[in-house]
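User: Hey, quick favor. My workstation is busy. Could you predict this chain's structure for me?
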Amino acid sequence: MTSAQTPPKTLRPDDQGQEAFSVQKTSSEDLNPYHIAQHQFDNAVRYIPDLKAGLRDYLKLPDRVITVEFPIETHDGTVRNFVGYRVLHNRARGPGKGGIRYHPDVTVDEVRALASWMTWKCAVVDVPFGGAKGGVVCNPKELTTADVRKITRRFITALGDNIGPHTDIPAPDVNTNQGTMARIFDTYDMMHPGRNNRGVVTGKPVDMGGSFGRREATARGCLCAAQRALAQGLVEGLDSVEGATVVIQGFGNAGSIAAELFAEAGARIIGVSDSRGGIVCTEGVDPSAALEHKRKTKSVVGLAGTKQVTNEELLTIPCDILIPAALENQIRSDNVDSIRARFVVEAANGPTTPSADRILFKRGIPVLPDILA
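Assistant: No problem, here it is.
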């Protein structure tokens, strides 16, 4: 079953993707990602007083919101139904561009927000794409590889012509990878024979037409943006990542590769975390050792020579650079006063709420926003 939803006109202001977890949230502020994205937009357009109301609404609201429901037969013989979303926010600059995530907490409002942020990201770096995003409500950790493959194929079949090389181009995100993209391409290609369909996804294997460097692109962009910001004097007394102490929340594709790249650039990684907890070592955590330990044990926790901390405690570790590389709403009004970093570099989407962002600004802690980093 497929339905297109129109949002209300009055709205409140790999090889895995980002590490799929969040710290305990006790904040009373509105943590709805779409409301946050709308609030960010409303704040930004205040600086464009001549923007016409109709154009403002066009830039603010998504072009298309699609909900699909589909069944699969799982490994134990039961039939389960899943819900998926694909939001095309804006394609004024080109085809929609944005990842697909598999996570039990996926909501349509989260996907709307992520699609909005993708529009802004593409515009900031001046690439010819608009913004889009997708997600399926599922927990891959409770499913077999075969189950997840079925979900991918059924989801793409249900989306049909709502994605395509000239319309809307998916990519990897939380709990999806190049293998997922290969199956998306294969499914779409079977549905559209006789065409060159390689452009339907990015992040696919190189031997299928993927790009060299795609796997580390998110983390490398984070490093390059941080280096440029520091070189321009954004943080007093810190003009390079060389010699800086770094804490990274999230050890999926973005976080683990960021750890490697920042370490290669001369930074000292003193803390990292994943969905099971965090580890700290003031002398430095070896990213390669942490990654190998996680490969063997499914977590960085327990790495020799490190101290275990909670995800909440990890955010409070004194450091030069804090890199949230997990999910949204990790730095909020209820924990922002405990942040003791000198510089926040957002590798995740929407990790800092508007209230927390204002508090960090007042404290003199600059934030390199997700739409740039």
